[in-house]
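Supplementary Methods, section 5.1.

A reviewer requested that the exact input to the structure prediction be made available. We therefore reproduce it here, unchanged from the version used in the analyses.
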Amino acid sequence: MKVGVLALQGDVEEHGHAFRAAAEELGVEVEVVRVREAGQLRDIKALAIPGGESTAIGLLARRARLIDELKSAIEGGLPALGTCAGAIFMAKEVRDSVVGETGQPILGVMDIAVVRNAFGRQADSFEVDLSVEGLGAVRAVFIRAPAIAKTWGSAKPLAYVDHPKLGRAIAAAQEGAMFATAFHPELTTTLFHKALLEAALGRR
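The structure derived from this sequence is encoded token-by-token as follows.
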């Protein structure tokens, strides 16, 4: 089974490792494709959109004429995981904690609102243990992280994080076969990548 990692910018390699580890745990074989052009989306059965810099990812996706193809594939049922910047890219509403509206290119496929840089700068990065509904316990790494401000429609929160400045914020959300996390699960766990593979296999 082919799975993809959007490979325009960000921690692409880590998602590839997570997919391969998750596949081994499930007893299936995967080929990880680094997606850089629309034609590569035709054969993949699941997609990870990595963390990095959300504006750069959006601009590069637009330059590669990938946005419409990505949007169509995910809305058509392709299981997808957006982590950190990837969650921003998938959201229908995005604003920055300092500058407000960003106007950046986004896919707008998931009924979530995301606030960029919600937890502060790089120096404010942190780790915490979270309980994720339906998946289990994870060690969550927040790196210059956004926060999921709200969900609506068929999207639902899966995990919350308590923060001294923000209070209780949504750390992960799900809508059908789409997952978004404010943290980087690819660094510590295979749970989210296993969920994508299970969705692709019709087991979820």
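The first helix runs from residue 12 to 26. These observations are discussed further in the main text.
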